[in-house]
Amino acid sequence: MTINDRVVTALDLVSLILRENTNGLLETRRIALQYDVDIVGVIPPLNVVQVRLRARTLAARHSIVSSMKSDPAVQGIVVEDDNPERPEDPERIIEPPDQAGWIANKLEQAVEAFKHNVREQGRSFQPTNVVVGVVEKGVNFESTDFSAFAAPCKGVGTCLYARHSSAINGHGSVVAGILAARLYPRGNVAFLSRLGAVGGRFDIIVDRGAASGVTARIAASVNLVEDGVRVLNWSWGVHRIGTLNLRGEPVDINVRTDEAMAGYELLLRRFFDWLEHRHSSVVVVNSAGNSASTTDDHLPASLSSAQLVVVGGHQRSRQVVDVADPRFAVPRSSSNVGPRIDISAAACPNPSRSTAVRAGRGGGCGTSYAAALVTGVVAAMISINPDLTPRQIKHLLRESALPMIARPDQARRIGPTRPIRAAACSNNVACAVEQFARLDMHQALALAVKTKRHPSMAEDGGGELLE
């Protein structure tokens, strides 16, 4: 049902978050009988059940939901909102795509350093197999980038497992292509494929489940984690309807009602509690969003967890300065900002022509793609030192970060990332207070190698991680 011109909501489908100390199976059966609802699906590890209501109006849904909320076994209820498709706005101002923006993150140097360690250190440097989960619909196996992955994986290098997506330039193909793709001139970034070609071992599983809602994404994430994923890429997020961006304009993309946001927050907190207690080594990398707003009213980016890395987007400044200079890159104006953002990365991946995003969809740029770069480097760090904890990984990402200055219009209000502490920044002599964190893939891998040799180096450097 349409709530307004930006939000539609499912009248007959909700998810129940049962209290953790209840018997999920027994309570689900009782609730189904008591409230005359049909069980659609369950997420057993989270004690979450999805049910279908006999409701055709908002009033009817509200009545049933209100009754179930008062049930002693129910902690919360998730209603599912979505945004209707609408034509692209021809007046929408889009910054031109960056050219090879990942140069600002020293990607090529990272690949060469990984190759050097494999070849020069031999048996003393044996990368660990790492499984990466990407919560996306799928990839197009008919494209040049992914056709080779349609054949059975040989168990070496980098393997990609996904559903087929008919959209060649779909979001999943662009995100996945930053991690894995066929290697050829002017092809995709394919960071983990490059590492796999020189001795790394990565399995990348792309799965969003059968539906597109937040509950489906969490269900897919639970399945991926239970299948052995160590790094989970979440290139998605939602804003609270009514949020204003930094220009004072209403955010109208990926917005949800207050009722939906309350349910999503409870569901996400249940997921991260489960991760902490059952899968404490898993790292979730999440995009900050592209609404030129803060992360305050954005999920999941506003949440605080030692296992969540939030990523903003930057682009090259086009100033003729060294890559280590704080002026080399600037925050992309569309990227969300704020102190919950741990680090920024290149927002414009320059995908190959086979997966290039068409004009008008953000210019092929966004924090979704920045998050994928960070996912790749986190997976590489774990392959080097599998004993690294999520907290240590967050610390090393920020300790290795290159400095970046805010745009003039941002500097007066809110920074693009949590500021770098001068004492914690080991990368550059120019690093100073009120400069912000720009991913350095090369230095991050170098620190991972050092922590493998000297485990005490991985410890939190004097309270750098502020929750």
From TrEMBL:
Q: Name one GO biological process term.
A: proteolysis
The reply to whether Hydrolase figures as a keyword in the UniProt entry is yes
Keywords in alphabetical order:
Hydrolase, Protease, Serine protease
Q: Which GO terms describe its molecular function?
A: serine-type endopeptidase activity
For this protein, the record's Pfam families field holds: Peptidase_S8
Which residues are listed as membrane-spanning?
none
Please list the residue ranges annotated as the Peptidase S8/S53 domain.
129-402
Judging by the UniProt lineage, the source's domain of life is Bacteria
* Family that this chain belongs to: Belongs to the peptidase S8 family.
Protein name per Swiss-Prot or TrEMBL:
Peptidase S8/S53 domain-containing protein
